[in-house]
Specification:
Layout: H1 2-11, H2 17-39, H3 53-72, H4 75-83, H5 88-120, H6 126-141, H7 151-175, H8 179-189, H9 204-243
């Protein structure tokens, strides 16, 4: 799906930005449909996780680091610029298509595949491990930018993608769907195309500090969700035993 997505952009290289953004959006929606059909649902579990006190505390930390990232990287200014930009719809569709495609692929297909593999192997901390594995792939996909951007800046993108990917998994699991991860991803990407030009002034210190905090907070939250999932699976097993007393 990723290779097709890249090829699609190369195929429509000489077309207008508006047409290319529409093509990307259509393909992204197709990817979302494929994920939904292949898994049967965008839900992670049939029962939602309980918002315990400890989980709420760490979710609050996730909220704080998310808002901090939005403010530090001037996301509100980017969004404001979109509304005054001559290519409002193209900028919006590009951001929306990237959010839908990457979330459907990474927090959808990749994450679900790792969860299924971990379940098959009876792996502990399955959510946390699957989040990290799918986020590593998410970061690796950004290596395609090495063809057009400075190595140092692209490596920063890859590191930040790995960290923010774990945060997106937290949102996906807690909200039990893909809508909110797509929404946040869209907000973070929503800006004029000119804002995506490579900034050689980006600091490794700033990047490492912000996204290491995001990664640590997210993985801690995911570990709490893993612990709760174990209890949830036990409850489901008990319910199934009551329905079918002869079940081994």
């Amino acid at each position: 799906m990723f290779v097709i997505f890249i090829f699609l952009n190369l195929f429509f290289f000489d077309t207008t930005a508006y047409f290319k953004s529409i093509a990307n959006l259509v393909f992204s929606l197709i990817t979302l449909i494929i994920f939904t059909i292949s898994t049967g649902s965008t839900k992670f579990t049939e029962k939602r996780f309980k918002l315990t006190r400890q989980l709420l505390i760490w979710l609050s930390f996730c909220l704080v680091v998310t808002v901090s990232e939005i403010l530090i990287y001037n996301i509100p200014d980017n969004i404001y610029t979109v509304f005054t930009h001559s290519q409002f719809w193209a900028n919006t569709f590009f951001a929306l298509s990237a959010a839908i495609f990457e979330e459907s692929l990474c927090r959808g297909l990749f994450f679900s595949a790792f969860i299924g593999l971990g379940t098959y192997r009876s792996s502990k901390f399955n959510i946390t491990k699957s989040a990290i594995y799918s986020s590593l792939l998410f970061g690796a996909l950004h290596s395609i930018n090495l063809l057009s951007g400075p190595t140092t800046i692209v490596l920063q993108q890859m590191f930040s993608a790995i960290a923010i990917g774990t945060l997106f998994v937290v949102i996906r699991v807690v909200t039990n769907g893909l809508f909110f991860p797509i929404l946040l991803h869209f907000v973070l990407d929503w800006g004029p195309l000119t804002s995506y030009s490579y900034n050689t002034d980006s600091s490794w210190v700033l990047t490492l500090t912000i996204f290491t905090i995001i990664f640590v907070v997210s993985t801690k939250t995911l570990s709490l969700l893993d612990q709760q999932l174990q209890h949830l699976l036990i409850e489901i097993e008990k319910e199934n035993s009551i329905i079918d007393p002869n079940r081994n």
